[in-house]
User: Which sequence fits this backbone?
C-alpha cells in the first residue's frame, strides 16, 4: 500500500510550492470517516483512496485533485455531506468529489457497442471538471487491479464496462498507459483462454524478439550516424489486448501480428526525416504502397509522420514511423491519432481535431487558472450540438441540443411519437416543448388514440420527428380533403340532378380524373378539397353537354348570390380557376386593389383576406390560393376609418365635407372627445377601392387640426 508521505513527496517534486496541508487534511479526514470499513481484499478501505491518490500523482496532478481523490468515496459510502466537504476543503474539492459521485451513480443498463459511444460522450459531457474524469479513471484502474476479490459475475460486468467505456475514454484523453492497462486486465477476465495463450507466446518469444529489436535498432543507428543524422530509434511493443484485437480484426494468427516489428525514429528537422526514409529504403526493401507521407499531408487531427514498412534482415516485416521531436509530442499527446488509428469506429474529422485539442488542454490542466471555464469550453468544443438522455430502461439516446420530449418519443418509435401526450423528466411532468438536458431520465406518456399536433413542428429539433409529424398531418389533410371534395362535388352535381356516387360506380369519375391529370378518382376528389380544381370543372367532365348550357344562370349566379353583403356580381377572380363561391373576411375587410389571398374553407368556397391579415398568415399553406381583382368594378365597399383631431368648432363639418367631395358616402359616424382636448371620430364610408380610399384619406389629412387618419381593420 502506498503511503501518504510518498504521495506528498511526489507532489512537491513536481510543484515545490504546493499546498500539502490540504492533502494531509484530506488524508486524515478520509482515514477517520472510512474507519472500520474494509475492502473485499481484507485491507482497510483507506487503501483504495490512497492508491487512487497515488495514481493521480503519476498523472502529475496537483493537491486539489489529489485531495479530491482521497475523498472521492466519502459522499457515496460514508456519512459525509457536501456541506462537510465544502466547509473543510473548499468548494472546488467538494465539487469534484460530487462530480465523481454523480458519475458513480449513473446506472447504464448495458454497455453494448451501440450504446458505448453515447455513454462515453455522456460521461465527458456530464463532468463539469476534467479532474472528475481523471479521478474516475484512476478509481477504475485501482478497482480493476483488485478485481480478483469480486465474485465472477461482477468481474465480468465490470471488465466489460471497462473495456467498452473507460479504456476508450482514457484513450480519448491521451492517457495511453491507463488505457492499455485497463484493456489488458479486462481482457484477462473476459477472454481468459485467449489472454493466457497470448501471454505464453509473448513470454516464449520475448528473448528472441528483444534480440531482433536490438539488432535492427543498431543497424538503423549506424546508418543514420554514417549519414550524419543524429536520431533516436526505439522499438515499439504491443500490449496483449492490442495483439488480440489485431488478430481478430485482420483474421490472422499470433505469429503474423507478433512478427511485425515496429520502430520509431525521432529526428530534429523535417528534411532529416525525408533523408532518413531514403536511407531506410536503401537498406531494406520497402513494401509497395505502404509508404505514407503524413508530414506533407497531416491527418485532420494534426498528426504528422512518415510511415513505411520494409522487409527486415530476416525477411520479417518492419513498420517504421519517422518524425521530428515536435511531431512526436503531438503524436503522443494528440490521442486523436491513437483513437483514429486503432479504433476506427465512429470517427470523423471534426471529433479528431477536437480530441487532439482536448488532449493538449488536459496536459495543460495543471496550469489552468479556471477549471470551470476550461470544462465549459471542452464541452462546447466537443459536443456543441448534442444531449445524452436516459430511457426508463437505462438506454442512452443521443439527440441534438435543445431536443424536446417529442423528439425523444419519435427517437424511440414512430408510434410512441404519434401517441405522445406528455413526458416526465427525472420523475417530474414537463411540457412537450421542454428542452431536454444531458443526463436526464425521460419517460414518455402515451395515449392510444392521440394524434400528433401541427404545433409540434414549431419546436421539434430532429428531422425524424419533423418528417413523421408532417407525414401524419398530410395523411390527415388528405382524409379531410376527400370529405370536403366529395361534399363540394356532390353539391354541384345535385344541381343538375346528378349524383356523385353514380359517377363513382360507373367509372366516369375515374375517366374525368385522368382527363384532368389525376391518377385516381380519389385523387381528383381530394384535389377539389384542396382547391386545386373546382367542382364545376369536374362537373363539366361528367355531365352531358346539353345539361351544361344553362350553367351561367344556374350554378354561378346562385353561388354568387350567397356572397354575403354583396351584389350578385363579384369583382374578385380566382387565378386560373372558374367562378367559385367567394366571401370577404370580416376580420380585415379587403377592398379592390388591396393585395389579397384566398383561403379554401370547408364547404363554403373561398374566403378573401388581406395578405397581411393575421388570419391569412396562420392559414394552412395547402389551402391558400392566389387571387386577383377583376380589372373593372362599379361596386362600392364599406370601410371604417379613424380620425384623431384637435377638438375645435366646425372641424367635424370640414371632415364630412372632405369625404363627400371625395365622392365617398358616409354610412355611419361617431365622435367622442377626450380629456386632453382631442377628438376621436370613426366613420364608415363606402369607396370603390383602395385607391379611392387613399384619396379620401389624403384630403381629410390636409384639414387643419387633423392629427392622424387611419384605415381600420380587424
Ligand atoms: Mn472508489
Assistant:
Amino acid at each position: 500500500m502506498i503511503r501518504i508521505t510518498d504521495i506528498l513527496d511526489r507532489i512537491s517534486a513536481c510543484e515545490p510550492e504546493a499546498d500539502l496541508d490540504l492533502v494531509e487534511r484530506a488524508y486524515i479526514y478520509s482515514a477517520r470517516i472510512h474507519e472500520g470499513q474494509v475492502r473485499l481484499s481484507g485491507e482497510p478501505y483507506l487503501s483504495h483512496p490512497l492508491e487512487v491518490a497515488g495514481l493521480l500523482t503519476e498523472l502529475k496532478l496537483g493537491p486539489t485533485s489529489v485531495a479530491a481523490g482521497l475523498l472521492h468515496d466519502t459522499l457515496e459510502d460514508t456519512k459525509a455531506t457536501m456541506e462537510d466537504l465544502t466547509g473543510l476543503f473548499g468548494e472546488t474539492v467538494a465539487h469534484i468529489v460530487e462530480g465523481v459521485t454523480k458519475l458513480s451513480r449513473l446506472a447504464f443498463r448495458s454497455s453494448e457497442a451501440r450504446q458505448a459511444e453515447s455513454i462515453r460522450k455522456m460521461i465527458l459531457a456530464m463532468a463539469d471538471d476534467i479532474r472528475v474524469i481523471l479521478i474516475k479513471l484512476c478509481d477504475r484502474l485501482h478497482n480493476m487491479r483488485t478485481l480478483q476479490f469480486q465474485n465472477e459475475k461482477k468481474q465480468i460486468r465490470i471488465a466489460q464496462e471497462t473495456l467498452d467505456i473507460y479504456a476508450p475514454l482514457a484513450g480519448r484523453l491521451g492517457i495511453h498507459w491507463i488505457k492499455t492497462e485497463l484493456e489488458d486486465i479486462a481482457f484477462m477476465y473476459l477472454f481468459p483462454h485467449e489472454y493466457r495463450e497470448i501471454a505464453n507466446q509473448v513470454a516464449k518469444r520475448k528473448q528472441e524478439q528483444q534480440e531482433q529489436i536490438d539488432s535492427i535498432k543498431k543497424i538503423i543507428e549506424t546508418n543514420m550516424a554514417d549519414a550524419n543524422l543524429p536520431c533516436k530509434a526505439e522499438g515499439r511493443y504491443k500490449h496483449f489486448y492490442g495483439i488480440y484485437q489485431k488478430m481478430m480484426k485482420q483474421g490472422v494468427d499470433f505469429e503474423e501480428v507478433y512478427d511485425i516489428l515496429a520502430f520509431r525514429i525521432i529526428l530534429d528537422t523535417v528534411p532529416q526525416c525525408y533523408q532518413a526514409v531514403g536511407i531506410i529504403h536503401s537498406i531494406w526493401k520497402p513494401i509497395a504502397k505502404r509508404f505514407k507521407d503524413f508530414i506533407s499531408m497531416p491527418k485532420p487531427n494534426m498528426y504528422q509522420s512518415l510511415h513505411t514498412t520494409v522487409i527486415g534482415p530476416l525477411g520479417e516485416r518492419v513498420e517504421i514511423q519517422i518524425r521530428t521531436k515536435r511531431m512526436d509530442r503531438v503524436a503522443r499527446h494528440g490521442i486523436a491519432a491513437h483513437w483514429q488509428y486503432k479504433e476506427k469506429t465512429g470517427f470523423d474529422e471534426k471529433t479528431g481535431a477536437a480530441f487532439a485539442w482536448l488532449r493538449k488542454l488536459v496536459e495543460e490542466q495543471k496550469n489552468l487558472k479556471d477549471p470551470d471555464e476550461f470544462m465549459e469550453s471542452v464541452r462546447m468544443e466537443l459536443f456543441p450540438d448534442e444531449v445524452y438522455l436516459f430511457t426508463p430502461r437505462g438506454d442512452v439516446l443521443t439527440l441534438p441540443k435543445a431536443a424536446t420530449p417529442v423528439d425523444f418519443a419519435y427517437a424511440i418509435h414512430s408510434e410512441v411519437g404519434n401517441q405522445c401526450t406528455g413526458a416526465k423528466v427525472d420523475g417530474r411532468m414537463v411540457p412537450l416543448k421542454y428542452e431536454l438536458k444531458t443526463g436526464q431520465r425521460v419517460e414518455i406518456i402515451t395515449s392510444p388514440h392521440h394524434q400528433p399536433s401541427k404545433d409540434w413542428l414549431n419546436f421539434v429539433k430532429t428531422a425524424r420527428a419533423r418528417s413523421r409529424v408532417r407525414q401524419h398531418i398530410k395523411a390527415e389533410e388528405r382524409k379531410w380533403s376527400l370529405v370536403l371534395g366529395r361534399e363540394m362535388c356532390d353539391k354541384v352535381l345535385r344541381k343538375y340532378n346528378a349524383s356523385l356516387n353514380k359517377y363513382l360506380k360507373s367509372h366516369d369519375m375515374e375517366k374525368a380524373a385522368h382527363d384532368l391529370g389525376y391518377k385516381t378518382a380519389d385523387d381528383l376528389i381530394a384535389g377539389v378539397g384542396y382547391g386545386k380544381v373546382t367542382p364545376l370543372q369536374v362537373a363539366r367532365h361528367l355531365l352531358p353537354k346539353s345539361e351544361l348550357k344553362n350553367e351561367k344562370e344556374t350554378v354561378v349566379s346562385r353561388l354568387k348570390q350567397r356572397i354575403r353583403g354583396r351584389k350578385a356580381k363579384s369583382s374578385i377572380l380566382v387565378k386560373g380557376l372558374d367562378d367559385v363561391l367567394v366571401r370577404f373576411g370580416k376580420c380585415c375587410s379587403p377592398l379592390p386593389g388591396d393585395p389579397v389571398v384566398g383561403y379554401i374553407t370547408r364547404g363554403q368556397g373561398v374566403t378573401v383576406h388581406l395578405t397581411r391579415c393575421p388570419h391569412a398568415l396562420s392559414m394552412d399553406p395547402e389551402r391558400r390560393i392566389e387571387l386577383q381583382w377583376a380589372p373593372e368594378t362599379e361596386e362600392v365597399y364599406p370601410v371604417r376609418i379613424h380620425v384623431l383631431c384637435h377638438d375645435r368648432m366646425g372641424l367635424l363639418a370640414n371632415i364630412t365635407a372632405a369625404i363627400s367631395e371625395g365622392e365617398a358616402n358616409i354610412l355611419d359616424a361617431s365622435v367622442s372627445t377626450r380629456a386632453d382636448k382631442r377628438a376621436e371620430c370613426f366613420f364608415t364610408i363606402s369607396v370603390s377601392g383602395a385607391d379611392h380610399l387613399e384619396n379620401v384619406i389624403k384630403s381629410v389629412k390636409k384639414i387643419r387640426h387633423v392629427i392622424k387618419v387611419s384605415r381600420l381593420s380587424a
Q: What stands out?
A: The chain has 30 helices and 20 strands. The longest strand covers residues 637-646. Residues 48, 72-73, 139 surround manganese (II) ion (CB under 6 Å).
